[in-house]
Design a protein that fits this description.
The structure is a single chain. Helix content is about 60%, strand content about 0%. The chain is an all-alpha fold. The relative contact order is 0.12. It folds into 2 domains: about 35 residues; about 35 residues, no CATH class.
Length: about 90
């Protein structure tokens, strides 16, 4: 596809997601309490968007992913939380 075709097809969807992200960050700013590892991982993912000139999706995914290779004996919780608590941003 041409750049124009990509913009015509995907711009409105990306615009909506960008506004949703801004609203999420506004809600966090208005909330009380200390941020946890998920917010730190989220900030790392946002940084990856602006610093990675190519393969942004891979950079964002890796900033949220568990890089370890050894499986755990048992899951530490009941479900996925969307970010790896061990990553230091």
């Amino acid at each position: 596809m041409t750049r124009q075709q990509v913009l015509d097809l995907y711009f409105m969807d990306a615009r909506c997601k960008l506004i949703e992200l801004a609203a999420f960050l506004d809600r966090l700013d208005r909330s009380e309490g200390a941020p946890d590892f998920r917010f730190e991982a989220f900030r790392g993912a946002l940084a990856a968007l602006s610093s990675a000139p190519s393969e942004r999706a891979k950079a964002v995914l890796m900033s949220l992913s568990d890089p370890t290779l050894e499986p755990l004996d048992a899951a530490p919780g009941k479900g996925a939380c969307g970010a790896w608590p061990g990553r230091q941003v």
